[in-house]
TrEMBL record:
Transmembrane segments: 52-72
Name of the protein this chain belongs to: Transmembrane protein
Keywords annotated in UniProt: Membrane, Transmembrane, Transmembrane helix
Species this protein is from: Mycolicibacterium sarraceniae
């Protein structure tokens, strides 16, 4: 159950990282450098949103690895518990 929760949280963190990543850039108008020149545009990045995006995507990766590893480990333990060596019959008595 814990591993499923980790995978769900990883998906939510990844979705949050995508949403914040799409909001990082914004177009700003730059004033002309000299008289008579046209104004231009430039792209500005928001550092706090960049950091939040990085943190969310990192958390998503860590949670995904932990969740998948836990599920694989739990599956192996469950398989090992169900596969048992057959109990051998006691030896037959020798004829006299």
């Amino acid at each position: 159950m814990r591993h499923i929760v980790q995978l769900v949280l990883a998906a939510l963190a990844l979705a949050g990282g995508v949403v914040t990543g799409l909001q990082i850039r914004s177009v700003v108008f730059v004033a002309p450098v000299a008289d008579g020149q046209p104004s231009t545009t430039s792209v500005a990045f928001d550092p706090p949103l960049m950091m939040l995006t990085w943190a969310l995507i990192t958390a998503a990766g860590v949670l995904a690895v932990l969740g998948v590893a836990g599920l694989v480990r739990a599956g192996r333990v469950r398989d090992a518990a169900t596969v048992r060596t057959p109990v051998s019959d006691p030896p037959a008595p020798e004829p006299m």
